[in-house]
Amino acid sequence: MPVSVHSDDSDLESDSTSEGVSNDQDDSDEIMDTYKSESSAVARLRMVVFVATLLAAVGVSLAVLLIMDDSENDEYRSQFDESAFTVLTSFEEIAAQQLAAIGSLSVAATLYARSQPNTTWPFVTLNDFQQRADDIRLLSNSLFVSIIPVVTEEQRPAWEEYSLSNDGWLNESRVYTEEGLGFALQKAPLDIARGIGDQIYIMGPDGPLVDESSGPYFPLWQDSPHFGRDMTPNFNLAYYSEYAPYIKKSLETGDMIMGGLDTAAAGDINDSDRTTSFFARLLSVEADEVVEYPGDPMSNLFIPIFESFDTTKAPTALIYSVFRWATYFEELLPEDTPGVVVVLENTCEGPFTYTVVGEKAEYMGQGDLHARKFDNMVRAVNFAREDDLLEASLGIGVNQDICAYSLRVYPTQELYDKYHSRLP
Fold it and tell me: How far is CA 133 from CA 150, 176, 225, 243, in A?
């Protein structure tokens, strides 16, 4: 019987061992499952932390970028507004200062004629005209100033005799102009004495012709600078169809009239085109050396002269002036300023575009040539309010019935790029 007991004990031990192995296996599987579960959770947690960190980094970068962009935009707009304000103010000062300076010559002419015994228009020759005109041109940045008396058909014979007898101012003007240009002036292409038309004349296809039209006439008289060719004294300025409407409007209204935006082909003082040659000569006198005309816009100004200070009466003469628009856009901005685009426009010839960078104004060409992406940044002013300024200072208004002027300013791409780094 002892053998039987031993056998049973072995079986129990075997069952116990099998059960232990089974339990160990179960524990191992459970541990593995737990490990895998925890590893997966850790991986997910790491991913969450990574994504959260990435999002935080992106968010911080975007926040920094937005803050920088706002700051750059503020600097950009501030710089542009400052530059635009400077250019627009210069445009307004044309009336407040420059045009008023030319207008003062009208007052001086009226005073001079009234102070001379037995002197009435058109038979007036101002004393010291060259000195007066030189000062006016310097103050107003104009290139040319001339007095144009109104001569009726009945007065024409007496005027032509008077002009030939009172041409002493010509020598003074010639000396001044020759010193500025550095060479002697050519004689006028007319068969006339002393470089002045013995009759009121116009320019025909082959040269000067006696003006056979009926009056009134508007002959050039005293001028500064004096060139002695093409447009010499007694040339009827109203012969030019582009000038005639402005001359007549000034006489009708008694107002100051700004002419159109005049351009010609680029060229030098010897150019076959009379307008190109004339503009080149004006610029050469201003520069004190021979220079070329680059083809940019010029304008004329017509200012009435009255017999007395009763401006309700018709004007008896006009001041005719020529100026270059680029002059009013130069030396405005600091040297290191990227610049702005300036669009000058009137209702006759349309827009013309300049780039104003530092102290220089570069003519880009005819048309509105600013980048359209900057349309929403435009700053603008028109010339309408200048009428009040001149009316108050001179008693003469600015009439824009024919051509109304305006100015628009836009950023350049260079100005935009300077204040936008594109880096977070």
Answer: 20, 12, 8, 21
DSSP string, 282-306: HHHHHHTS---B-S--EEEEEEEE-
Helices (H) and strands (E) in the chain, counts: 9, 13
SS3 of 379, please?
strand
Q: Is 120 left (phi over 0), alpha (psi -120 to 50) or beta?
A: beta
Helix axes 386-394, 100-115, angle to 10 degrees: 30
The answer to whether 279 and 298 are in contact (CB under 8 A) is: yes
Residues 412, 340: Cα–Cα separation, whole Å: 5
CA pair distance 244, 116, nearest whole angstrom: 30
321 near 301, Cβ under 8 Å? yes
Under the banding of pLDDT at 50, 70 and 90, the label for residue 296 is very high
Q: Structure tokens of 195?
A: 């470089």
Task: List alpha helices for 155-239, DSSP H.
Answer: 156-165, 169-181
Q: Distance (Å, rounded) from C-alpha 189 to C-alpha 170? A: 16
Give the integer Cα–Cα distance in Å for 357 and 375: 19
110: exposed, middle or buried (Cβ count in 10 Å: 0-12, 13-18, 19+):
buried
319-368: pLDDT as tens digits: 999 999 999 898 888 887 888 999 999 999 999 999 999 888 999 999 99
Q: Any idea what DSSP says for residue 95? A: I
Distance CA(324)–CA(393), nearest Å, equals: 23
Which helix (H) or strand (E) segment is 4 a member of?
helix 2-93
d(CA 263, CA 78): 35
Given a contact cutoff of 8 angstroms between Cβ atoms, the answer to whether 302 and 238 are in contact is no
Q: What secondary structure letter does DSSP report for 142?
A: E
- Tell me the H-state helices in 265-382: 274-287
Please give the average per-residue pLDDT across 243-257, as a whole number.
92
pTM of the model: 0.75
Of the pLDDT bands very low, low, confident and very high (cuts 50, 70, 90), residue 187 is very low
Letter string b/e over residues 35-53, b meaning 16 or more CB atoms within 10 A of that residue's CB: eeeeeeeeeeeeeeeeeee
